[in-house]
User: Fold NADP-dependent glyceraldehyde-3-phosphate dehydrogenase from Gossypium mustelinum.
Amino acid sequence: DGDVYKYYADGEWKKSSSGKTVAIINPSTRKTQYKVQACTQEEVNKVMESAKTAQKSWAKTPLWKRAELLHKAAAILKEHKAPIAECLVKEIAKPAKDAITEVVRSGDLISYTAEEGVRILGEGKFLVSDSFPGNQRTKYCLTSKIPLGVILAIPPFNYPVNLAVSKIAPALIAGNSLVLKPPTQGAVSALHMVHCFHLAGFPKGLISCVTGKGSEIGDFLTMHPGVNCISFTGGDTGITISKKAGMIPLQMELGGKDACIVLEDADVDLVAANIIKGGFSYSGQRCTAVKVVLVMESVADVLVEKLKAKVVKLTVGAPEDDCDITPVVSESSANFIEGLVKDAKEKGATFCQEYKRDGNLIWPLLLDNVRPDMRIAWEEPFGPVLPVIRINSIEEGIHHCNASNFGLQGCVFTKDVNKAILISDAMETGTVQINSAPARGPDHFPFQGLKDSGIGSQGVTNSINMMTKIKSTVINLP
Ligand code: G3P
Assistant:
């Protein structure tokens, strides 16, 4: 019937007074794998209070000590990579090796954040007044970076550990406290990760993890007066959150429709390898996945043939067996993907493989000759289905990319560096990769989306800065 997990508050593991649990369905078996507590609004209130109190003394804890604890948590997390990865396999059907990579990457991210934090936060500014017209040198301004208070972190199902620590570590190094609301699929992996912070010995109440139904505690958390900043990664729920949240800083990453523009002079083997990795890793369930290929007609046949040869070689099956393509996260997600496929079929797309589905498992599918009137040309399937649109000019490719409501990343393949730079400048996305598939990492690189893809910028340095405020003290001389 599934193991039942407690939530984490005040440095302790607790059962919710609701007496209710939320089931986590294993995407592969479609049966209940685990259960987590359905926390109440009252429990959220308590967590917020403890977070507020704990933050006050944490902000006074020396920076080097905060860093030391984070390094400790990173080491413990890495030691526990096997059991955490196992949860990722069961909860979100992440292929076994990728699950291990996610945990290790998370440990590295925590350590890097601790190192970066001591440097960024260890420095302030000194300004003098006589640079501004009309002033004498009578004012000295000292600035430093102070924490915001309580940070609410809401990571998505596809990286429940990594996209949680990418919010937790910068929040903590900067002297904030943190309330984590993990995604339901991925909640147990997140609770295990939180346990590593618990073992590292962070003060009580500084980190907490509340689980439960979005309908019960979702809005309650995001609109809670005790929250001073929200860092969210996920779908368009983020847009709703941003409309309801109060006057607090928001960091949001809400998906994308990353385009891959392929020019005539591109190294087609390199392109094919990147499209397969970029489009199909974790079965396309990454916001940075290649989600539409825009290829010049003259090289399209060659590219599509190479892609077909590679798609056939992708292994399809269980995450435990480390297959390339594994069941998508939920039945509703599989149904949504199927809807896009059917629409493309009706409107005449060329199916490079036969469409095949068994439960939540969808076989990798390449759709050629996709046209702008098809939904798949614009919507993100978050599954192993990749549309190819044949273009006759670079402008056509850029136009399609920019007509999207998303603007996360994009990529361009060409040997002509001048063209690459011009295209990069023209693409309205937060990042453009030249001769590689889109990706968030390395995790200290800035990561941001334009338009509906997000607010603010992530990456270790940007997140630390985002979770602080500038405080000035001005010394007025006689
Ligand atoms: O989908 C979440 C996004 O942050 C992707 O990260 O590392 O797969 O590029 P990554």
